[in-house]
Design a protein that fits this description.
- The protein is of the alpha/beta class and about 375 residues long.
- Helix content is about 35%, strand content about 20%.
- It has an 8-stranded mixed beta sheet, sandwiched between helices. Strands 2-1-4-5 form a 4-stranded antiparallel beta sheet, covered by helices on one side. A two-stranded antiparallel ribbon has the order 13-14.
- Strand 9 and strand 10 form a beta hairpin.
- It is globular and about 80 Å long.
- About 0% of the residues have low confidence.
Length: about 375
């Protein structure tokens, strides 16, 4: 494997006062490689988004990185001034935020918002005409039909899926080496979610970007990821390539995430429940932070911090348990759920009750006092 484009080493982020700070990110380490996707998985409140904001140096007021390093290429991002970081954000590292409705400016057209990123971050474009053409190309790249018309429209005129595509276009405007996608499909329905994920995959293959994908959806992980990092209470507790993670999750928390998934094999049964909640991140941990919720805890878990173990060079986990205890049956059940979900999209032609081909619906765009038709949607 080639050298990583991004290395994160022992990154620790604190929020709040210095007396009892919140350890939102606690000694997190991972690597990103060109053309590969690392999925960061975990419950809400485990530090996934805060890790991304720490990388981009976009922490809220009172937030600070207290230790560790973030190396982009051969450059430490934590040593850069704010002015220097502005040339990194958007240009070398792009980010798709979680909710497009709150990320887009409602009083600026789509063309203006994407064009702003092009002007700031794309050195290959140096004219007004060039900026517009680059915006139109980006709109086409992200699959928005009729980009010439959409260029002049406002966010409220677009659907949720189209807004998310605009956010992707803005993130790609500076031709970044790394794309951070913070739960990019949370606000979308299942059909649009599939389209956005497919688009990200296609763009990654074309441009060989590294993607840091933040999600809590294991189905999305199975579809998109090459590597997985599981976070719990601000800490990475398991890393693996996606095949090993789905075949043999090692940490009890990862195993619980799998066993709590719904599926066709579990119809009529009660789903496994992960009791309790993530511990307060103001705590000073002197034992396993998953101890209170773990059904596999041993005596050492209550009195010592768990060690980092390696099942093999590509699979590590933070636990006293030597072996994974998720049953083969549970793994087989989940894998067949994923397989059946994938197969459900292809229905045999004999079972179709209705089939449409090349259907088009046109709505007229009317302007002026006499309501002349000037175009069509």
């Amino acid at each position: 494997m080639n050298a990583p484009v991004l290395k994160v080493h022992n990154l620790t982020t604190l929020l709040g006062d210095h007396v009892k700070p919140v350890r939102a990110v606690d000694e997190v380490s991972f690597e990103l490689h060109a053309g590969r996707t690392l999925a960061v998985v975990g419950e809400s409140g485990c530090g996934k988004s805060m890790t991304a904001l720490s990388l981009m140096r976009l922490l809220p007021s009172g937030g600070r990185v207290s230790q560790g390093d973030v190396i982009l290429g051969d450059q430490s991002l934590l040593e850069l001034t704010e002015q220097q970081m502005r040339s990194v954000r958007g240009r070398r590292v792009g980010m798709i935020f979680q909710e497009p409705m709150t990320s887009l400016n409602p009083v600026m057209t789509i063309g203006e918002q994407i064009g702003e990123s092009v002007r700031l971050h794309d050195d290959r474009v140096n004219s007004k005409k060039g900026v517009k053409q680059r915006v139109l190309d980006l709109l086409k790249d992200v699959g928005i039909p009729d980009p010439q018309r959409r260029f002049a429209e406002y966010p409220h005129q677009l659907s949720g899926g189209m807004k998310q595509r605009v956010m992707i276009a803005i993130a790609l405007a500076g031709r970044p080496d790394i794309l951070i996608a913070d739960e990019p499909t949370t606000a979308l329905d299942v059909t649009i979610q599939a389209q956005v994920l497919s688009l990200l995959k296609q763009l990654q293959q074309e441009k060989q970007m590294a993607i840091l994908l933040i999600t809590h959806d294991l189905g999305v992980v199975a579809e998109m990821a090459d590597d997985v990092a599981v976070m719990y209470a601000g800490q990475v507790i398991e890393t693996a390539n996606v095949e090993q993670f789905f075949q043999t999750p090692r940490h009890p928390y990862s195993q619980k995430l799998f066993s709590s998934l719904p599926g066709r094999h579990k119809r009529g049964q009660a789903l496994a429940v992960l009791q309790g909640q993530v511990p307060a991140l103001t705590s000073t941990f002197e034992r396993c932070r998953f101890y209170e919720r773990c059904e596999q805890a041993v005596d050492a878990c209550e009195t010592h911090l768990p060690p980092w173990q390696e099942a093999n060079p590509q699979h590590g986990y933070r636990c006293f348990n030597q072996q994974a205890s998720l049953s083969a049956e549970a793994n087989e059940t989940f894998n067949s759920d994923i397989e059946s979900a994938a197969q459900s999209t292809s229905v045999s032609s004999q079972s179709r009750a209705l089939q449409l081909e090349q259907l088009q619906v046109h709505f007229p765009i009317q302007k002026g006092i006499f309501k002349r038709t000037v175009g069509h949607v």
